Amino acid sequence: MLKITNLHANVGDTQILKGLSLEVNAGEIHAIMGPNGAGKSTLSYVLGGRPGYEVTEGSVEFMGQDLLDLEPHERAATGLFLGFQYPVEIPGVSNVQFLREALNAQRASRGEEALSGGEFLKLAREKAALLKLDMEMLKRQVNVGFSGGEKKRSEMVQMGILDPKFAVLDETDSGLDIDALRVVGDGINAIMRAPAKGVLLITHYQRLLDYVKPDKVHVLAKGRIVTSGGPELAMQLESEGYEAVVA
Ligand SMILES: Nc1ncnc2c1ncn2[C@@H]1O[C@H](COP(=O)(O)OP(=O)(O)OP(=O)(O)O)[C@@H](O)[C@H]1O
Ligand SMILES: [Mg+2]
């Protein structure tokens, strides 16, 4: 479903990704772990097509298409969703407005009809309930004044509403309290655990993986995948640290 081959990417003059290869099949959830500064967020930005991130070598195939050839909004319309490590605030725009615009733009590009205000609110209420997020939060400006955990949870509501084919979730578990971690984990399973979907879950801690069981775990260090394994690899990293594994 997502096939990354020998990806090299620069930010400015600095090479961050140095030959990264990774393949996620439909129906799979893969976790990426790795030291700070390894290039995990860079990978998610490159997949999303963020300006300033230049691919110098390698390829990314997404659902049979050359992903790198698509504009960021086309990538989203194809069904790619990015959850950010640091969700952005959008003052002056409510979550409801933002999400309805985003959803209807994606529907239009797929040749589907726009949802009416009523239909959209019904969908938004359903997904907010799934993530146990108060509907009032969705009426507020996007992420403005949200606590760290509220941002992450509302991002998962966004994901539920947009219903992507593939999600790259960058430290979605950071800042979540113990109960919220379970709610978000259950939400990821409910929204994304499906035969035709896939997830790349970037995380520093194995505890999220207790809820969202990964099919594979990869270690990203110094711009490439240095080792891969099953869920037991996350356990090993938690007890032994990266040094032994990365060396
Ligand atoms: N605009 C930039 N200019 C220079 N270096 C950058 C820039 N953006 C990122 N980098 C560097 O790229 C490296 C990889 O950063 P990245 O954010 O991808 O790491 P990460 O694996 O997500 O780390 P963390 O676990 O801390 O989130 C870091 O050393 C970072 O300083
Ligand atoms: Mg990061």
Quick structural gist:
The protein is an alpha/beta fold and 247 residues long. The protein contains ten helices and twelve strands. The model has no long low-confidence stretch (mean pLDDT 94).
Q: Your description of this structure?
A:
The chain has 247 residues and is of the alpha/beta class. Helix content is 40%, strand content 29%. The protein has helices spanning 40-48, 72-78, 95-109, 117-130, 135-139, 148-162, 178-192, 207-211, 231-240, 242-246, and strands at residues 2-11, 14-24, 29-33, 53-62, 65-66, 80-83, 90-94, 141-142, 166-170, 198-202, 216-221, 224-229. The strands form three sheets. Strands 6-9-10-3-11-12 form a six-stranded mixed sheet, with helices on both faces. Strands 2-1-4-5 form a four-stranded antiparallel sheet. Strand 9 (166-170), helix 7 and strand 10 form a beta-alpha-beta unit. Helix 2 (72-78) crosses helix 3 (95-109), helix 4 packs across helix 6 (148-162) and helix 6 (148-162) packs parallel to helix 7. The chain is globular. The structure holds adenosine-5'-triphosphate and magnesium ion. Magnesium ion binds next to helix 1.
